[in-house]
């Protein structure tokens, strides 16, 4: 569940971005997505971590959000990590606001930048998202090399 302060912030961001899209077009979402990924990448590049492998993905991302987002770990090896997200309050709230495309740019785009910043050898794939209305988010991480 999203608390009232976070809900108000999400609604304000959605309102602002709708106004920007109305004025400047859908390209605004591309700019926001790129910014979100770049911000995540820079943040993870600066993070002090001993190992930059798939265990770090669990520790720095999934363990930290486990109280907010419901997920199952389907596979966890040194070379592969597969996670199925079954509940995401960010997706729920942005969809409630009718702003799933904005939520994708603000929240879902983070994942790609996270992996790039943590370790460029980590390949991230996702073909389904709760934000888009799918039954789950299917995160797959592969460590190459």
Number of strands: 4
The profile of the biggest β sheet is: 4 strands, antiparallel
The rounded Rg comes to: 15 Å
Could you tell me the strand content as a percent range?
Answer: 15-25%
Element string (H = helix, E = strand): HHHEEHHHEE
Average pLDDT taken over every residue: 95
The CATH superfamily name is Trafficking protein particle complex subunit 3
Shape: globular
Given helix and strand content, the structural type is alpha+beta
CATH class type = Alpha Beta
Q: Which spans of ≥5 residues are poorly predicted at pLDDT below 50? A: none
Q: Distance between the terminal alpha carbons, to the nearest Å?
A: 39 Å
The strand order across the widest sheet is 1-2-4-3
What is the count of DSSP helices, taking H or I runs of 4+ residues? 6
CATH topology: Muramoyl-pentapeptide Carboxypeptidase, domain 2
The CATH architecture: 2-Layer Sandwich
Classify the helix fraction into a percent range. 40-55%
Number of domains: 1
